[in-house]
Q: What sequence folds into this?
């Protein structure tokens, strides 16, 4: 392992056949793990851990989460500090380059972003030929993987400056593709990015400007969007980031890896939860279901229903991002004139009642990042089908940083887990004409 780790002694594993010693390593924040990389060779045994709940797939210097204490840091900086004080592009730069940019570096990064925000005119045909009802996440994933056909020189960049260009192009073009996928879904003409706008102003302008409106991005919405994208920027080895690393470990290019990550994020148990939360609450209000009855359904094992936006694999305390998202949502609703949004009122009541319910207390189920962000996006006028696209836009710098770290790691191998086979034993083959 690279990075800041130290060997902290050994563990003893007593097997029926033999006893082996397993090295213990400790990370810079005191997390400890057994290095079992020699286990099968030395014992013939493998470990069994569905969902990799207890298994570390890599060591990383990008993001630290303490799920018990509700701590989230990127390159050592608390998410609260970054969300309150940074533009999203500063955080993207931090994740990818490992340090916060100087003013000069930030301006150069923003300028490069703007200069690369257009997509190839031929890509517009892709949008035009997509079915009307296509989900924007399907469009996003298809468009990203097709970028390598339009920009083949970036498919396998080697020198650092090439990778910088590839990374910046991807960060900038994903925003344009996301806005275009929305315009496509509402049948409006595409609005091109403008060099006079910042990253978030540009996105909102491409989303809501049209030939018949003199739309100006509202500073409150721009500030909130910067903050929302920032709290999504990275989250160590979550499902979609692990997919990006896995696909990249086979030598696939950055676009293919990111496209796979978008598909993983789409799932309602992962990034799709922000869309599912608003659908769940809208449905409850429509069907006159009280928060108590939703909670009862979530506790009923037979119902398979889950309270969307609640629970987390790692956080067993309040997700720090959810606190920031809730605060921002409140401000957005007050400033953008829908302060009595029935969905937000219902969400706050649902949270309040769930946090007092023994089932949720016993299982450490708290609101996660998805519980309030969708309601905030809705307050900005962003449609529900675009919520997970915004999650992907925010997560992109994290995916890129993790992919680059995987690619440059000396410990890196192609991802290939083992299994415990439980199928039939050897059978004698019977040819077709005898069956
Ligand atoms: C994200 O990993 C990341 O970092 C992800 C993410 C990121 O930034 O990348 O943070 C983004 O994906 C946030 C999570 C969004 N998903 C949801 O809000 C969907 C609802 N939540 C759950 O489905 C669930 O909490 C997960 C998927 C988030 C976590 O599932 P785990 O870790 O596999 O936990 P589990 O399914 O084993 O649940 C443990 C227990 C179970 O009960 P028992 O079998 O022990 O009796 O808690 C229960 C679950 O039934 N439970 C819930 C629940 N979440 C867990 N019960 C009701 N409602 C819920 N939401």
A:
């Amino acid at each position: 392992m690279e990075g800041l780790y130290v060997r902290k002694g050994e563990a003893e594993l007593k097997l029926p056949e033999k006893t082996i010693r397993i090295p213990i390593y400790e990370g810079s924040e005191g997390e400890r793990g057994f290095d079992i990389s020699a286990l099968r060779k030395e014992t013939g045994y493998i470990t069994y851990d569905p969902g990799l709940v207890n298994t570390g797939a890599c060591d990383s210097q990008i993001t630290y989460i303490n799920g018990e204490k509700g701590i989230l840091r990127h390159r050592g900086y608390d998410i609260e500090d970054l969300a309150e004080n940074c533009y999203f592009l500063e955080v993207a730069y931090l994740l990818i380059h490992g340090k916060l940019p100087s003013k000069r570096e930030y301006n150069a990064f923003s300028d490069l972003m703007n200069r690369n925000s257009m997509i190839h005119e031929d890509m517009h045909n892709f949008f035009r030929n997509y079915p009307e009802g296509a989900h924007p996440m399907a469009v996003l994933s298809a468009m990203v993987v097709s970028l390598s056909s339009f920009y083949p020189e970036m498919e396998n960049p080697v020198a650092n400056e090439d990778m910088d260009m590839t990374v910046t192009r991807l960060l900038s073009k994903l925003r344009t593709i996301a806005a275009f996928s929305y315009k496509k879904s509402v049948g409006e003409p595409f609005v091109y990015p403008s060099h006079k706008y910042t990253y978030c102003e540009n996105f909102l302008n491409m989303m809501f400007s049209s030939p018949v409106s003199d739309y100006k991005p509202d500073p409150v919405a721009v500030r909130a969007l910067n903050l929302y994208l920032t709290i999504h920027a990275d989250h160590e080895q979550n499902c979609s980031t692990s997919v990006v690393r896995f696909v990249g470990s086979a030598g696939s290019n950055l676009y293919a890896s990111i496209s796979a990550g978008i598909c993983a994020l789409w799932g309602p148990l992962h990034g799709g939860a922000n869309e599912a939360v608003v659908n769940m609450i809208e449905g409850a209000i429509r069907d006159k279901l009280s928060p108590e009855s939703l909670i009862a359904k979530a506790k009923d094992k037979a119902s398979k229903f889950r309270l969307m936006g609640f629970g987390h694999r790692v956080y067993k305390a309040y997700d720090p991002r959810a606190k920031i998202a809730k605060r921002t949502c409140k401000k957005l609703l007050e400033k953008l004139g829908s302060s009595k949004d029935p969905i937000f009122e219902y969400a706050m009541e649902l949270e309040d009642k769930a946090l007092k319910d023994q089932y949720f207390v016993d299982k450490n189920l708290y609101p996660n990042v998805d519980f309030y962000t969708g309601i905030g996006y809705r307050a900005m006028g962003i449609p529900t089908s675009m919520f997970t696209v915004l999650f992907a836009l925010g997560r992109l710098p994290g995916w890129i940083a993790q992919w680059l770290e995987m690619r440059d790691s000396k410990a890196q191998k192609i991802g290939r887990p083992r299994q415990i086979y439980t199928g039939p034993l050897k059978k004698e083959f019977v040819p077709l004409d005898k069956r």
